């Protein structure tokens, strides 16, 4: 390695990985903790409290000061980090183009189901918050030299920072709250809708966005939740087995990992697995579409059996049609279309069974009209300890574990109090968001015994009495796949 590159090699520390926040047993008796904010410089956070309704309180929490600025990151295969060899090559290219580049090594912290790792960035320059345009000029010159680069705000890195942080915390105490918790997928599963719109339709006093939704499917289906969704006892999206979920019933909330089992049994005794619910079908799959789907089923040369609410086959048809009110459609592709033609004759009654299993206890979760389930993005806290399940929840990478983003979290205290949190981010100088580790530390600080990460980024939104009380990073409230509603 050239000597000038060795001189620029800097190892960056991840402060949160070596200074875990202590768990606070039950810190929400009359308010939030008054000291020991777990992120940034030690001290008490500034907070304001507002009573929303009986048992419901809203807190605005502010902490920290801006000291981070901008740098330019040289991209490696489209990413702002890579292996040491890739970083050395990228830095050499920048140096040959006349730019002083440094290689910086960083550590991605290990989590419960994924070991720590090391990465390398190639950085050029350092500018204050007011000097972003100067950094943009460097990116332009690099582009002219054939080098891909981008401006990065150092507060997004997930490394040591002074903040600041801007949070909203909503607490619901079941001992005085008289309403109930529900999930909502909006008007249909297929289309996205804002949390405030869902809240208004159902008269909710408060709401937050729910879990992740599928942006990599057909453009007409991008409201589909990624993972489990149960609304008022009806399974509207199957689980990814082992991923975290928030179970809601009346005024109770709990967090666990779930799996779903959906089967169809024909009168001739043939039984088969239904692979999915209300999503695009893959080859050789059987997918169930409910009346909440809100779109035509795929026209993919498969076969469909239209069922009434008791499972009787009303008609058989080629794939691609509406799901009428009061009906369900069993859609088969490839070999599963053959199953439909062979075992779902008209006027036969198929026994379609749905089961959601709590994987911690091994017991089934009764799907009553009072039951709602929202799939989480990542487990954060389990039994009062940091327990981040990035790999099980499909988020085991540097961007999701280490980088700071706006986040929405849900937690439950020992006494059953529900904690809903939004941490705003992507606003340099105003609020930096949180990494997964920081999100877990925040929930522990707030007294959560169990906690999960919901969808974040531009989806993070908290609605109270019809008003969005946080500051979504898109600049406006985003349509999402589902939401958690608090009804009076």
Characterization of the model:
The chain is of the alpha+beta class. The protein folds into three domains: 3-15 and 68-156, 2-Layer Sandwich (Alpha-Beta Plaits); 165-257 and 356-487, no CATH class; 267-349, no CATH class. The protein is built from eight helices and 30 strands. The chain has helices spanning 3-7, 15-18, 84-96, 132-144, 195-202, 335-343, 398-401, 436-445; strands at 10-12, 46-53, 56-63, 70-74, 102-108, 117-127, 149-153, 165-172, 180-184, 206-209, 229-231, 234-237, 243-249, 252-265, 271-273, 276-277, 286-289, 303-308, 313-318, 327-332, 351-358, 371-375, 378-382, 385-386, 407-412, 418-423, 450-453, 462-464, 467-468, 483-487. The strands form five sheets. The protein has an eight-stranded antiparallel sheet with strand order 2-3-8-26-25-27-23-24, covered by helices on one side. Strands 11, 12, 13, 14, 15, 21 and 22 form a seven-stranded antiparallel sheet that branches. The protein has a five-stranded mixed sheet with strand order 1-5-6-4-7. Strand 23 and strand 24 (385-386) form a beta hairpin. The longest helix has 13 residues, at 84-96.
How much helix, percentage-wise, in residues? 10-25%
Shape designation:
globular
Oligomer: single chain
Helix-strand category: alpha+beta
How many E-type strands? 30
Number of domains: 3
Number of helices: 8
Low-confidence stretches: 1-29
Q: What number is the mean pLDDT?
A: 93
Measured by DSSP, the beta-strand proportion falls in 25-35%
Roughly how many Å apart are the termini?
65 Å
Q: Record the strand order, biggest sheet.
A: 2-3-8-26-25-27-23-24
Radius of gyration: 25 Å
Largest sheet: 8 strands, antiparallel
